[in-house]
Design a protein that fits this description.
heterodimer; A: Rossmann fold; six-stranded mixed sheet; five-stranded antiparallel sheet; 11 strands; about 25% strand; B: 2 domains; about 0% strand
């Protein structure tokens, strides 16, 4: 169950034990925040709002790439109690414009990855297994986006943060990717936070949507049967 | 030994070449004349001054005076390294990187050479200490500055790539391992190339100077070999220490890339 509330307003009680899921309390970074929300195990929170409002900054703060105040807790343990690299292995951020640092796609996956799992993932995303031998320089924007999801999921994160993932895909490829992510969050009970401009997409994938606005933060009237009240 | 001493007229004649070049630049509108003349004049004054200082220094041999001169040289080199960075490091640390790495590359190597290899009495005999320090500072500075510049620039330009590696749970060491290797290579290429070309393509300046000054070529060559090996070692240690200091400075304890510690580039 996902809940959200404006810091100045009355916080909605989260309806899952705080010992599970991702809990964000009074998160501030730069001029942004305070943000307060939580995502239960296997739930998906959509985040939307105008460009420049700080959606990507929110994701960066959640993976501790930017300095921030407030608490980010996973399964009751705070971000700071983990070494930073370990935290980022638990809370994976899939960037909007993935970069690649080796010439071949395959080298970006951990060498000890389970072969069957890799195959299942790349095929789920619409590739054949030989995609691992492809040269990165020849990938299209959409292929890079899909492979960035593979690159993140193969490391089995506990939480998935998606920044505009699927924005460069045609409808069919987009649906396949959404399915891969839906499967992952169900199988691993992983909370997912999905930043997107596409309200139709959020309508499909998210249980709730946070609208970041000039007045900070509100719960969208947009979805869903379980949307939390103010 | 028959050494041809240079008169003021001889120097003025070579200065005439520069003047000629400046005139050419003026007529072709190349915009180089002024800078050329100023830097030639600067070089002449600086070298004449240091000549006088060295003369006084060699005569006195007072340790504190030698210490003072070498410290000034070191600080100037550190400043020069800093000023060559396109993306400068903010605050005193930027200067510290320059001075620190030049200390490692030149100062420590010079002291080691004086004590272990040359073994003069006293070991800090300025006739050896100051020229060796000067050679090392001048020649390692290039490599150190190249490596440091490459590193800060790459951090700036490849921020997203580095951060995406961090996002996958890599430590900052892992996230910049290729980049670090690249900077090391950039810093070491000049000295490696000049060692490869020495004697074949180029006659190194110091050796040439010694021969012109009347030394037998084989003696001059031995000194040149010593100096080149010292420069290569010094440049290597200097580049390593500059890289280690910069990378350590630009990440914090949470493995975040702290680009706000750089001045965004290009004032040079």
């Amino acid at each position: 169950m996902s809940t959200a509330a404006k810091e100045s307003g009355r916080p909605s009680p989260s309806s899952f034990p705080e010992a599970s899921g991702l809990v964000v309390r009074d998160l501030r970074f730069g001029d942004n925040g305070p943000y307060r929300f939580s995502i239960g195990p296997g739930r998906c929170l959509g985040v939307s709002g105008p460009s420049g409002i700080g959606k990507s900054l929110l994701l960066r703060a959640l993976v501790d790439l930017d300095r921030h105040q407030g608490d980010v807790l996973l399964g009751g343990r705070s971000c700071e109690s983990y070494p930073a690299p370990q935290w980022r292995r638990l809370v994976a951020l899939v960037p909007a414009e993935p970069r690649w640092w080796y010439p071949e796609v395959g080298r970006h996956l951990p060498p000890d990855s389970d072969a069957e799992e890799v195959t299942a993932l790349v095929e789920g995303c619409g590739f054949s297994r030989d995609v691992l031998d492809w040269q990165v320089s020849r990938l299209s924007t959409g292929e890079k986006q899909r492979l960035a999801v593979v690159r993140a999921l193969i490391r089995r994160p506990s939480v998935l943060l998606l920044d505009e993932t699927g924005s460069a895909l045609d409808e069919q490829a987009g649906r396949r990717l959404e399915q891969v992510i839906a499967d992952y969050r169900r199988n691993h009970e992983a909370p997912v936070l999905w930043v997107s401009h596409d309200h139709n997409q959020l309508d499909r994938v998210a249980d709730h949507v946070l609208l970041l606005g000039r007045d900070r933060l509100q719960i969208s009237p947009l979805p869903r049967q379980e949307a939390a009240g103010r | 030994m028959n050494v041809a001493t240079l008169s003021a007229v001889d120097l003025a004649l070579s200065g005439g070449l520069i003047l000629l070049l400046a005139v050419l630049s003026f007529f072709l509108n190349l915009g180089l004349g002024r800078r050329l003349l100023i830097s030639a004049a600067r070089m002449t004054v600086q070298l004449l001054l240091i000549g006088m200082v060295l003369q006084a220094l060699f005569a006195s041999k007072t340790p504190w005076f030698i210490m003072l001169i070498s410290s000034v040289m070191l600080l100037a080199a550190g400043h020069e390294v800093r000023s060559r960075l396109k993306c400068k490091i903010k605050g005193l640390f930027g200067f510290g990187v320059g001075v620190g790495s030049m200390f490692v590359s030149s100062f420590s190597v010079t002291v080691l050479t004086l004590i272990v290899i040359l073994q003069q009495d006293p070991w800090y005999d300025p006739r050896y200490a100051i020229p060796i320090l000067g050679m090392l500072l001048g020649n390692t500075m290039n490599g150190v500055a190249l490596a440091a510049d490459r590193m800060t620039t790459m951090f700036y330009e490849q921020r997203e790539l580095i951060e995406q590696r961090l996002m996958l749970g890599e430590t900052w060491h892992q996230a910049i391992s290729e980049l670090r290797r690249d900077c090391m290579r950039t810093g070491m290429i000049p000295i490696i190339n000049s060692m490869a070309a020495a004697g074949l393509v180029s006659l190194p300046g110091m050796m040439t100077g010694q021969i012109l000054g009347g030394s037998p070529p084989v003696e001059a060559v031995k000194y040149q070999i010593l100096i080149m090996l010292l420069i290569a070692a010094g440049a290597g240690f200097g580049v390593v220490s500059a890289i280690l200091m910069i990378e350590r400075h630009l990440f914090d304890h949470r493995h975040r890339l702290c680009l706000e510690r750089l001045l965004p580039g290009d004032q040079s």
